[in-house]
């Protein structure tokens, strides 16, 4: 049962305003294992009434409670206590990820212990303060202050539910916001475990809530006038909707959306480095990554060598039960996602791309939403598999004849989230990086680091998460002009 696997104290309750409360309705959210296709647990389903309660608690906590009025160092102490509680629950976080998403436990158990670092990092930034003294042109003093944006709704996807949640909650709390977390209905467990950690850390009443619910009820939440900001990670279609709703009432919004990122292989690239840099993008999380290098742009002269090396690497991947230590890639997250990925594979074949390897369900796995690592070749950038985000373990090799053509292909996309270049020359790498319209770009691989800003150009989103920019995204800037500085800012 879920309680045993992740040690939840109250899986049948909602965490609203600092306490575990029964839902106003009698519905529930079933957790389905993507490996077995069976229900492995159930959590409470929030209703509109529950959302009203959570928003009211957050509004009161922000408007009248101590949290936004604490100093940065005081809030930092709470964040460090949250981090300590998360360290105690690292294995619960890992098992939740593997149970709900199919991430191999051998990988999730290595990653989960690092998640508390998000809170420690933002604790350090909060301690640096939120005031900067400047000198206006006309004399006197100006204090540029950053103040918490207010009540924040954090909506996160199912592929990396804890990392995407921490990337919102940690800086929002550090800034002094009150936060309502809305996890995906496929992956509610991490948010509930985090709620237990936050409660154990003694965070004041009303500052944090978790609402487990379906997507229809969530739409009600983002329309609430008491909500000052929505921070969303997910599909571009959903992000466009959320942005339009928030824009209609001038609510603040940050979106981190889809991608169709290009890996540009240059003529001097080391093929072993190419394989090592691209494979984690294609098979990690079963390819369910918005920053995956799903378009692989290769010089025509290297096309066969790179394609063969990637295919061989894919064929060596062990696909299976997430809790089997030998497994390197688990299943896709849902039945719908499984059908969607297989549908894209069929489109690729129908439009003339050639499957080099994969393309089917693994023959030894008749149950579960598994698919083979799949590589297409002889593709063009106009094909559906090169234009649309597949969100599965599918790579597409596209040949090019000049660097200018490669740059043009890489930029020929509605997305601009990630990308990379493979070359042994750092000068060539940087020159190409500056010409690709994307928010993140790597040299001989992909790096995502929560201390560095992350986000997209074009339809990959608005705003940045991570780094000091991620903290600033949960603040409003105020300029205070003073004839004389207050005592605490005098040298």
3D structure, described in words:
GO terms for molecular function: aldehyde dehydrogenase (NAD+) activity. This is aldehyde dehydrogenase (NAD(+)). Keywords: Oxidoreductase. With 491 residues, the protein is α/β, with parallel strands linked by helices. It folds into two domains: 2-257 and 460-480, Aldehyde Dehydrogenase, Chain A, domain 1, CATH 3.40.605.10; 262-443, Aldehyde Dehydrogenase, Chain A, domain 2 (3-Layer(aba) Sandwich). It has 17 helices and 22 strands. The protein has helices at residues 2-6, 48-64, 72-88, 90-101, 105-111, 117-127, 161-175, 189-200, 215-222, 236-247, 271-283, 303-315, 335-350, 384-387, 403-411, 426-433, 467-472; strands at 14-16, 19-21, 28-32, 39-44, 131-134, 141-148, 151-155, 178-182, 208-210, 229-233, 252-256, 262-265, 295-299, 354-357, 374-377, 394-400, 415-416, 419-422, 442-443, 457-458, 461-462, 475-482. Strands 14-15-16-13-12-18-19 form a seven-stranded mixed sheet, with helices on both faces. Helix 3 runs antiparallel to helix 6 and helix 3 (72-88) crosses helix 8. The mean pLDDT is 96.
Write down the domain tally: 2
Oligomer kind = single chain
Tell me the radius of gyration: 23 Å
Total DSSP helices = 17
Number of strands: 22
CATH domain class name of the largest domain: Alpha Beta
Class of secondary structure makeup:
alpha/beta
| Strand-residue proportion | 15-25%
EC number: 1.2.1.3
GO molecular function: aldehyde dehydrogenase (NAD+) activity
Catalytic activity: an aldehyde + NAD(+) + H2O = a carboxylate + NADH + 2 H(+)
Domain Aldehyde dehydrogenase: 20-480
